[in-house]
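Notebook entry, structure prediction.
Reason for the run: the old model in the group folder had no record of what sequence produced it. Starting over properly, with the input documented here first.
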Amino acid sequence: MSSSDSLPKTERYPHEKLTLDGSNYSQWATGFKMWSGGIGLWPYVNGDEKEPSPPATLTDADQNIIRAEKHGERVQVYKQRRLLALSAMSTAIDAQDFVHLRDIDDPHVAWTALEKKYLPQKAIRFNQYLDRLFTIPKAHDSS
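New structure, fully documented this time:
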């Protein structure tokens, strides 16, 4: 039994895992978005989930202590889930792409770095094909 077999089904890829290899960004991004969304990590990747704000100070000192402790717990959970999202992303990319994630500790920044790396190439290639299409000489009208 592999280590992934011991994970709950929702935390395993339900199909063969797709690894970003530089040529399949759109397919990889869609698959990763669905998978990470299914296990509750997508809001950390797309930047929707923000670090919890500190609670407002109350006049009751005991309530302030309780609120501060709960806030500390929420921040710890937030940081753990954010690290989990980044870790999941790093296991879903080819080793050559680690250079794009060096010194990044925020999954949203990592996602954006990969997006910047691979999406422009696709747009450039498409525009190059369009340029070629419009430079093809027209056939002379035979009538």
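Summary: The chain has four helices and no strands.
The old model has been moved to the deprecated folder.
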